[in-house]
């Protein structure tokens, strides 16, 4: 019987735990120095941009498409197991086309998606105004609607994954910090933690920004840098546009995310470290995000109340593509599932499946 230790319990670590918990003859332990769904998971907007992304081939597209498909079954599956409600917006994503955008490129993408059995609709201004009258800006020349893309609540999902995993026998240890490792040849034998030593056959590092410290202890530094994102939640007196059609609206990297009862998440900024490697939240940038959202949907300006603002650090790999999934160089039993940058929620199911295949190839 194999013992797998997962370090990190954000959305990625929790998804891996649940995926592995469905395989027989595996003991699974998840450790994290914080409670679940903290750090970047707790700050994410949960916008799942699959079909509407410009990734059209290779592993980047395969991971996106497989994750979107898995979420269609995963959400009801978790709700049935746990009795928890996971907010899951099935009304798609509407991407606004601005004057600077190449509308022909969107049409080409729609044709490619059709050949891949996915649907994208390219709308002109008249169609956009008839379906989403809240969108009103002279720089908008149309929109692309992706009915199969989704949005969900990352915190609710992570907590449901933890709950379901526990019901399947997974052990979670929160408030536990890794202090060191014991290695022999090309393997890691045990972790030294604040709760004692933990031995295992496999170790999965899914600790986001904390992954660099862990790999550094093994003399294999995986350089992951923080990128700050700020967002805010507003309440409106009534929903924007048609209350029965509330897709995520995105344009110029600004997301307007309906979360029910006339509430919307708006975000997010993209802020890099300064010369001292610190990222103090820039209030002016957050104001600009809100200003741009209002420019897209002027109806926001007259009746919104800001309920809260928040920020989180995204784990961005340095000088290599995101995410990092695979064996840690020099070790045959340490796997990396980290550095997802802005796509941790989107790619969590595909990442979990990839890790499962590395540990138990062709498991039923």
From TrEMBL:
The record's annotation in InterPro entries points to: FAD-dep_OxRdtase (IPR006076), FAD/NAD-bd_sf (IPR036188)
In the UniProt record, the signal sequence range is none
Q: Which residues form the FAD dependent oxidoreductase domain?
A: 3-357
Instruction: Spell out the SUPFAM superfamilies in the cross-references.
Output: FAD-linked reductases, C-terminal domain, FAD/NAD(P)-binding domain
Sorted alphabetically, which keywords does the UniProt record give?
Oxidoreductase
Record protein name field: FAD-binding oxidoreductase
UniProt organism field? Plectonema radiosum NIES-515
